[in-house]
Amino acid sequence: MIAFMTRRLLLGVMTIWLISILSFIIIQLPPGDFVDAYIAQLSSSGSQVSAAEAENLRQLYGLGEPFYVQYGKWLARIVTGDFGESMEWRRPVTEVIGDRIWLTLLLSFAALLVTWGLALPIGIFSAVRQYSFADYAFTLVGFIGIAVPNFLLALVIMYFAFVWFGASVGGLFSAEMALAPWSAAKVWDLIKHLPLPALILALGGTAQLIRIMRANLLDELRRPYVVTARAKGLSEARAIIKYPVRAALNPFASNIAYLFPYLVSGSIIVSIVLGLPTVGPLLVKALVAQDMFLAGTIVLLLGVMTVVGTFISDLVLMWVDPRIRHQMD
Amino acid sequence: MAQIDSEKYAVATQLQLTWWRFRRHKLAMISLVLLVLVYLLAIFADFLATQDPHATDARTSYIAPQPIQWFDDNGFNPHVYGIKGVRDMKTFKLVYTVDPNRKVYIDFFGQGYEYNLFGLIPTKVHLMTLRNAERGDGIYILGTDLLGRDLWSRLMVATRVSLTIGLVGVSISLFLGVLLGGISAVYGGIVDTMIQRTIEVIRSMPTIPLWLGLAAALPNNWSVLQVYFAITIIISLLAWTDLARVVRGKFLALKEEDFVMAAELAGASQGRIIFRHMLPSFASHIIAAVSLALPAMIISETSLSFLGLGLRPPAISWGILLQDAQNIQTLALAPWLLISAIPVVVVILAFNFLGDGLRDAADPYG
Amino acid sequence: MADPILSVRGLKTQFFGPEGVVRAVDGVDFDVFEGRTLGVVGESGCGKSVTARSVLGIVDRPGRVVGGSMKLRRANGEVVDLGTLTNEQMRKYRGPEIALVFQEPMASFSQHYTIGNQIGEGIKLHMGLDDRAAKKRAIELLDMVGVPQPARRVDDYPFQLSGGLRQRVMIAMALSCDPRVLIADEPTTALDVTTQAQILDLLRTLQKDRGLAIILITHDMGVIAEMAHDVSVMYLGRAVETGSVKEIFETPKHPYTRALLRSIPTVLAKPRTRLPTIAGSIPHPFDRPKGCSYHPRCAEIIGAVCEKAEPPAVDTDDGRQVRCFLHGGMEEAKASLQGASA
């Protein structure tokens, strides 16, 4: 069991390291650099930058040196908590990102809870009451979840909310609260706004997991040990929840491990459509402007979040399946 | 099915058995037919288009969908209404609206804008064109967008692009998946471990930020075609992992089978065992996995383009069409812009049903 | 002989599927007595397991018991027809009155819980003991069935035990609530011969010590010869012959029984003679033969009658029951056939 955990931990660290390299590479890929984009931006609005000034800027941001040197410098600074300055906003990256990263985490986590909370009972229900009306209804909703990309779902919901209710559905806060400092009222405001985006984000993953749970449970329900449980006099509900559900939980849990990256990814697009103050919209803008430190940091943070979330899912998986505990699979 | 002739059943090949099982899935069969139709549509996209998808015209901006009028006083004479300019007395701007008093008749297989049929044969023939059209007239079945372009025609072309990106992308993923999954399974040991770890690492990365990053890294001055291929490759590079896992899993399971050992003992070479004996066993699983991977690819491209970081105008894809619908205010003005979402959903559903049906047919016990 | 503990008459269980109705159990009679073993023998698919599950009321959907009576005589003398009970009522009987031992101990246990947990479950449910007391009892049970180091083993998972041990644990679990009837569904089929002998030994000992009534389901005539006192031979959902084990083996009446006995490989056979087999195979459930269900494979068929009419259960003089026109029922059948064609 220790071996299993250590392995997953090492893997996580490796993944993070790889992500950091990848994010750094990505930013470096486009020909030209930030300063070019900056110059282009300025000239389109009328100002000019002299060659000497450009060179100064380049020196300042270490843009002339070889790749690994820049990367090394960046890494060294990160370890001390200095994520650099956003070239576009002229403020420390951490300030620019600010609350957004936590909101991203919160949104993804909320979606995760929704997924678990919905997929498990609905999946069980669908398997046990196969071919019932509710089963078909859930299957239908499930298909919508699978077929409609989440940004589309967000769009459609926003449209209908606007047209039918005149409501503007976007945002995680109401207008007054958005800029206010944190308080209990603001937290409550957030909680009120969270369910819809979380639901939209969660639908795709939920639909998938319901299918998985349903299919696996249907398999398990046919197995002999379920008959044994009934033969011992257990009630139907007890027999099903204690035994086949536990067994079907395995593939379910191992899929959860990769649910988190999916949710974090999805939150980016959904945030853009719904105008949520999370990391997504910021990332897109940073990438377009080639704001290296900002974009790289965001990708790194997202990666770390994902890896940690995955690791936690692994822990859950371990707890759920005694075979792993004993055989150090 | 007690009606199946047990004699025929006993001598049917694996393929026939799979096909018979597949046929029982009504939904999957319908999906198959639907998808074939849609791909045919994609091939004949330009033929089915009624206006040049790229031609802009400020006059015809945001015209609501105009149904074709099939009959007039003289019987079956399909036509649409003309467009005329009316000066708005408040803004003094020319506003273009539908004029129900002027009928413009439709020709079938008439001459329209030029295009290359199958990409090779230059022609001007379209399914429906207008006779004696004045400037601004058009068969606006699905309405027009902000720049006055006919949405139906754009949708036809978008379908072609979105569907083929899916195909190209999946081919690459398939190749990588089978190659790496196969190597992993066949060689085992440290090669297997390394490939597995790589797969795990890739799977735990949030894909969208990486896609965004890679896509944003593409230079602005690349041609539409270059961007097309680059996007496809980017998406495939991250998508092959699922296929690799399926391939490896099946390979490993099959390696233990007695028939493989029998082949080895009979002296068959490694290659022969793999291609002649093992591959047919899981070919149908691969096909099922591929048909489930296609919708994922389509969603990826649509999402990227929707964000403006995938394909770029003047290319047309579903994502690009939906980009126009991003704004709520725009949508309130022109809700028909959302119609482009329907083919996306339908095609993805169809692929999912198809994949499910194939998977059940390939291995009813799996 | 004392009254039977369990008395089944005319049991019918059917499966209602999209392609038709399968008559899995089609009129089965038997009695089970205290301290005696009833062997139920037949080829796979003849309905033996479904019979066992019907008694306990745990037939898988889409099947259900559609007719007949299953009278259980409880310890206090009260007689209950199990077929009339609801599932809730029936639950109280599963474990404390009748218990089931299954064929595949690996598949019949859950791999996610310890054997102590799975044994103790019934104890806690039916006898109201708490965790500690249940565990203590579980250890006692393990000891009783011959599991070495029971106090340590009780916390093991099923996958940590060998096949033979698992089957012993299965028996311990079945006996945990002191049932009076034990139904063993092919308990030794998945085991090697040595282990098989040990398990049968165990069952015999337990029977002697507790006066257990055992229904032993198997397709192995050798096991029947060793363990059973009474035998019921089943074919396609019907009991075609019942009697004491001695009678069945020495004077089998039904052609099927005779064929089964003939097909047992024996040391005494002359070298290089063919092993007798039963011609044909079990018919598809949707393709039941008209008339006597065994007639397509019967070596002693009486053409005109056997192909058209179903032989009734006939009680022979020596207290046995047979379903075969060779032993009775022919006149009535002929009469009803002529009546039908007239």
Please provide a written account of the structure.
The complex is a heterotrimer of chains A (about 325), B (about 375) and C (about 350). With about 325 residues, chain A is mainly alpha-helical. Chain A folds into 2 domains: about 1-95, no CATH class; about 100-325, MetI-like fold (Orthogonal Bundle). Chain A contains 18 helices and 2 strands. Chain A has helices spanning about 1-30, 35-45, 50-60, 65-80, 95, 100-130, 135-145, 150-165, 175-180, 185-195, 195-220, 225-230, 235-240, 245-255, 260-275, 280-290, 290-320, 320-325; strands spanning about 85, 90. In chain A, a hairpin with a 4-residue loop joins strand 1 (about 85) and strand 2. The model of chain A has no long low-confidence stretch (mean pLDDT about 75). In chain B, strands 1-2-3-4 form a 4-stranded antiparallel β-sheet. The two termini of chain B are about 20 Å apart. Chain B is elongated and about 90 Å long. Chain B has about 375 residues and is of the alpha+beta class. Chain C has an 8-stranded mixed β-sheet with strand order 6-7-8-3-9-10-12-11, with helices on both faces. Chain C has a 4-stranded antiparallel β-sheet with strand order 2-1-4-5. Chain C is globular and about 70 Å long. Classes of the chains: A mainly alpha (about 325), B alpha+beta (about 375), C alpha/beta (about 350). Chains in contact: A-B, A-C, B-C. The interface between A and B is large, with 51 and 41 residues.
Task: Pick out its properties.
heterotrimer, A: 329 residues, mainly alpha, MetI-like fold, 2 domains, two-stranded antiparallel sheet, 18 helices, 2 strands, globular, C: 342 residues, alpha/beta, 8-stranded mixed β-sheet, 4-stranded antiparallel β-sheet, 13 helices, 12 strands
